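PT: before anyone asks, these are the final sequences, not the draft ones from last week. 1100 residues across everything. Please model them as a single complex and drop the result in this thread when it's through.
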Amino acid sequence: MSVVTPMKYDEALAKYEPVLGIETHIELGTASKMFCGCATGFGAEPNTQVCPVCLGLPGALPVTNHAAIDGIIKIGLALNCRIVEWCRFARKNYFYPDMPKNFQISQYDEPLCVDGFLEVEVDGETYRVEIERVHMEEDTGKSLHVGGATGRIHGAVHSLVDYNRAGIPLVEIVTKPITATGEKAPLVARAYATELRELVRSLGVSDVRMEQGSMRCDVNVSLMPRGAAAWGTRTETKNVNSLRSVERSVRSEIERQAGVLSAGGTITQETRHFHEDTGTTTSGRSKEEAQDYRYFPEPDLVPMAPSREWVEELRATLPELPAARRRRVQAEWDLTDAELRDVVNAGALDCIEATIAAGADAGSARKWWLNELSRRATEQGVELADLPITPEQVARVQAMVVAGELNDKLARQVFEGVLAGEGGPDDVVAARGLKVVSDDGALAAIIDQVIADNAPVADKVRAGKTAAAGALVGAVMKATRGQADAGRARDLILQKLTTP
Amino acid sequence: MSELTGKGAGELAALMASGEASAAQVAQAHLDRIAAVDGEVGAFLHVDPETVLAQARAIDERRAAGEELGPLAGVPIAHKDVFTTTDMPTTAGSKILEGWRPPYDATVTARLRAAGLVILGKTNMDEFAMGSSTENSAYRTTRNPWDLSRIPGGSSGGSSAAVAAFEAPLATGTDTGGSIRQPAAVTGIVGMKPTYGGSSRYGLIAFASSLDTPGPFARNVLDAALLQEAFSGHDPMDSTSVDQPVPAVVEAARRADVAGMTVGVVKEFSGDGYQPGVAARFAETVALLESLGAKVVEVSCPNFTYALPAYYLIAPSECSSNLARFDAMRFGLRVGDDGARSAEEVMALTRAEGFGPEVKRRIMLGTYALSSGYYDAYYGKAQQVRTLITRDFDAAFEQVDVLISPTTPTTAFPIGERADDPMAMYLADLCTIPSNLAGNAAISVPCGLSDDGLPVGLQIMAPALADDRVYRAAAAVEGALEDRWGGPLLAQAPDLAGGAK
Amino acid sequence: MSAITRAEVAHLARLSRLALRDDELDHLAAQLDQIISAVARVQEVAAEDIPPTSHALPLTNVYRADEVRPSLAPEQALAGAPAAEEQRFRVPRILDEEA
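LR: through. Structure below.
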């Protein structure tokens, strides 16, 4: 096979219109597995969360986890889907060592949720991504490939299988073809995955951690020449495991396909793998024979017929969804679009909102989380929400600032102490002796000394250049190691120098 | 055969309850009988006398301690090797599972233990319950105690032979297309297929999930009812299990009358292909039912003629998927793992060597019926036939209380006769399959000997969840016939080398 | 005309993961042909508006509560394994990721 050079992105988009399709698998965060009572914790010792059912031992039978069905219906409702009145599980038959029964319990032509949509925003423009279906299935085990290079499957001598993940509930969300996105296609794909993750996270049904595989995207891309009526042949890039990779894999696949097509080649309908290191996709092994999954209704499970009452009960439990919430906080906190984007991108919405709920004003809450605390989270390489400080503690610090007991500089020291595990804000203030010096007597003595040491500046102030007082205030702060109330110091200095 | 092995389950339970016999004595008597005759009968795949006696002694101790025990406590039972057991190997008659020790008990197994039954061992069967003669076992040939050159029926042929040969008073079986009723019929005992979902499939190694039904074998109707009651009832581990009280089958078996019942004779199950002796015994039983006060009418169920082809699409389709898990990865046989072959190759080699011809045939047939392009014409159509057969039953049960037919068109055929003629073998289940497709209750009770001196079975069918009705009618027929014969039909069976009856 | 070709039988064997010998394939091809011709009788049934039946009884909505139950001990889980290593099931090399 000849190697074709990918086409430059802008050139590719000038010639071709991309069509996307995204299939997303989300592991639900139920306590037990989809069809048995085994625990679902991530990172357990191998084969400690397995039983006859999820090992597919002879004679074992599945029983559906009610909470998983609640979870998928919530996702369906949040995606504006219709929840069908009757549907069945189906067996998807194919042999693979990490799939214990050599069939996956899934859904075929009768998905539980159909015909929804999700609106996503890219550069101020809204794209409506149509959802074809949301269906329920089970995850597979995990293989460790031994003997090959760096754990890869190729060249491995044998594999070691851990079935802890087998049978974890998996929701698959399939979009309809996403068209008319033009050069924004990679960004729309990323925005969709981002918005879907936020949506599912807000529902509390999954931790949607792409790096742990609890959310995984398969991205379909095809190109058609601009102005053409028929879509091109699509490829499916599997297991794209970060939001950034979703964007990059679409871009790279557009460039690759454009290169092939413009060189007169044809696109093979195939599975491709995305490589984080190179940012490109490579072909999966092409099958000798087309797969034939021989779907048929799962005889071991009875049909699901969610009553309308059940569906409405679940609808009533839906929280405020991310888009609506963003609209609300933007108005309530009086944010520009750019400010809102910063808050969202920093993952600070929950923290800020909780801090406001604990008594802080919106501006201060946003300031602390986006500046001081974001900086520290970045330093420590953790999510903002995972910092060892609570919104209540942030609100408490801000309350002390408002009361004049702390200034911003001292407040930062309090945060430092809390994050270092020295206790709550009050503990840190007490232990470190952080307190604004507001005793006028003590302050006056320091001010006298500062005026004496900075006679030329004092003279300027006396001459009416009150702005020069700032330098004197700074000197007072320095002398008190930041513990003076700067406002009070300024008042006292001006009083001393300008009052006749 | 000792005095104890000649007795039924109910009688043995009474002897033990009154202290006239201990469970250990009863177990020992049956172990002795197995040692004496199983060499020629070949009913068992696994018997471990120590385990058996330990179970029996535990029952005796509990009884001695004054514990209240169930109605079958201490009664020995032969357990079909399709149910998982933690203390015995479980093979489903297949080489691919040779020596497999399951880490869990089937629900039926657990309930037998809870009821205090003493499990004698695991019985031979057609591999994965696919067959009507037990010739498809990977391990041994089981012979019909009435004529050792003939088949004991199948797939539960080890269980039927064990009960008919007085090696056990009770046995478990599973019925997917007739695998309890047909072996019961050809060995002259009682075999019941409960309503689908009435007894749990958890731990029953699946053949065809939507059809498989565990059920009892016994030498009389009341014993069968006692056993069914012991292991039936809702099981939260089986999603298809019926969450309703078990019908009062024991009470119905005791009631034993058909007075005022309307009995329908299935018109389609007669004529060519039915052995004259079978047809004659069936006709006599119809007359007997009338004499007992039943009203007998002929009923047509036109779609029953499509039951056999529909079954041979549905059952293989499900089995092709159910048996996919036998792949040499997590349990069971592994062949050809030389360090160079891929998992895919090892799977294919293992399955080719580990499965017998009938299993491979059905896997291939099912794979065909489900594959794209054929699904609608085969599996889809078969599922529509299933609907039509259920409708035929519904219409019939609007007119009649129970339906009857011969259980199987012929008596036991010679071993080897149909072994490589699948189509001929499949005919053995002609009359039993409709009840599996519809999921309703059906029993086989002995109704005499054909001209060849071999047992003939009467099949009585009732609607789903009306198992009690089946028992009531079956017990009435049994009572009247035993009066006529002067004892059970099995009394007419020839002696086995193991000793006098 | 035969209902199924030998090539189709070979394809079915691959789909079913059965490494059948040529003579087995020949024998099975003939038998399957006979069986498929016979079961094709289901197509005689006029079934235009007949719904299919997948389950014997019309049960729906059977669920279990989301409660954790004890798993097998790893030794139990691996006891029947043809090969095990590092508390995992050891299997021959896997050709490629599927699905």
